[in-house]
Amino acid sequence: MTPLQYVLITCAVAHVVLPLAVATSDAAYPPPYGLDQSGTTTTTTASAVDDLIPVRREVYGGGRIIDISHRYLSEMPTWESPDGLGHFLWLAKSMKNGSEANNSEMKLPTHTGTHVDAPGHVFDHYFDAGFDVDTLDLEVLNGHALLVDVPRDKNITAEVMKSLNIPKGVRRVLFRTLNTDRRLMYKKEFDTSYVGFMKDGAKWLVDNTDIKLVGIDYLSVAAFDDLIPSHLVFLKNRDIILVEGLKLDDFPLGLYSVHCLPLRLVGSEGSPIRCILIK
Length: 279
Ligand SMILES: *[C@@H]1O[C@H](CO)[C@@H](O)[C@H](O)[C@H]1NC(C)=O
Ligand SMILES: *[C@@H]1O[C@H](CO)[C@@H](O)[C@H](O)[C@H]1NC(C)=O
Ligand SMILES: *[C@@H]1O[C@H](CO)[C@@H](O)[C@H](O)[C@H]1NC(C)=O
Hints:
globular; 11 strands; hydrolase; KFase_sf; alpha+beta; KFase/CYL; 2 domains; Arylformamidase; two-stranded antiparallel ribbon; Glucose Oxidase, domain 1; arylformamidase activity
C-alpha cells in the first residue's frame, strides 16, 4: 500500500469515527488504523512499517499462527443491541493534554467479542461458590483442536452432531457455521437468527463425545431459541468450557493446536479471551 492509499483509508476511517468521538470526551483517541470501512484488514508492506504505519495481521509467521479473536471495536455487535458495542475505550490521560504518558481506560461487558463463559454464567449457586473465569482449566483451553464445518441449513441439533462423526478422544472442537458465511461478527446489529446449539444438540455432545472445549463463531454457543437450556446442559458438570465469538474465517478445516487465555477476572462469569491456532 502506498502512503497515499494509507492516508485515503485513514481519512475514510476518521470520517466514520470522528462524529462519534467528538460527541464524547475522547476526541483525541486515534481511529482504528488498518481497517477499511468493511472491517477487513488492509495489507501493509514492509516499507510501510518505516512510514510509521502499524502492521495489523490475521496470521503470523507466514500462516503458522492464525488469530481467531476479533478486534474490539465500537461497531462490533453486542448482546441484544441494535447499536453495537459503542464507546468503550477512551484516553483518560493524554500527552497532547499535558500528561506524562498516554493512558487509556475501557469499560465493556465481560461477554463482549471473542469471550469465554464460566459455569457461574447460568448457575447462580456456581456463581456464589466462585466458579469464575479464573477457575477455568487452561489445559482444556490449550491443546489439539478440530475445526469442523456444520451444515448451513440447520441449527446444531442432536441429528447434526451425530452426522459430524467427531471421533471419541477429540476434546476441543471449533464449530464453523453459517454465522461465519453471514459475517455476523462484523455486523453492528445483534442478530437473533444466528446458528447455535439447540438443547438436544448440546445434550448429544455431552452424552456421546469427549469434547470439553466448544468454540463457535457468534456471541453464543446456544441458539437464541434455546439460549438458557443449551447453556445449562453444557455448564452443568463444570467440565466444558464455552468460547464464543470466534473468528473462523478463511482457513481450512482440520486439526490445529488451539491456545486460548482468558483474563484472571476474579468474580466474573465471563472474560474477553485471546485465541490463536497454531498449525
Ligand atoms: C501519546 O503518546 C505519544 C508518545 O508516545 C505522543 O506522541 C502522542 O501525542 C500522545 N497522544 C495523545 C493523543 O496525547
Ligand atoms: C484535556 O484537558 C482539559 C482541561 O483539563 C479537559 O477539559 C479536557 O477534557 C482534556 N481532554 C482530554 C482528551 O483528555
Ligand atoms: C437457528 O435458530 C434461530 C433461532 O434461534 C433461527 O432464527 C434460525 O433461522 C435458525 N437457523 C437455521 C439455519 O436454521
